[in-house]
Design goal:
The chain is α+β, with helices and mostly antiparallel strands. It contains 4 helices and 4 strands. A hairpin with a 2-residue loop joins strand 3 and strand 4.
């Protein structure tokens, strides 16, 4: 439920009578379509949300199989991506310090 949203006694009684939990009310407000002064979480919205969850689950499973994914940014530009389980801080540090040493030798 939205922070600060007041639930009337009538709504509380009706939710209990109809087996509608507070989380379902929150879901209807979050995912439903605004129709005048009410939110409608109908079959189409439910199907769309489930399809999106399935798509995200599939992507998360793919990322998990890779041990995670790391994306390096330079400002708002993506410059590289790699598997999270392939990253080694010590190798990266060695490569960085090795490059600095090489630059110093060539100067």
């Amino acid at each position: 439920m939205e922070v600060g949203m007041h639930i009337t006694h009538h709504m509380d009684v009706r939710m209990n009578q109809r087996g509608i939990r507070r989380q379902l009310v929150e879901l209807a407000i979050e995912c439903g379509e605004l129709d005048g002064d009410r939110y409608v979480l109908g079959r189409n919205q439910i199907d769309n949300e489930l399809a999106e969850l399935n798509r995200r689950r599939k992507l998360l499973m793919e990322a998990a199989q890779k041990g995670g994914v790391v994306v390096a940014l330079d400002g708002d530009t993506a410059i590289t991506a790699f598997r999270a389980d392939s990253y080694s801080r010590s190798l990266a540090r060695q490569a960085r310090f090795g490059a600095i040493a090489i630059d110093q030798i060539s100067n």
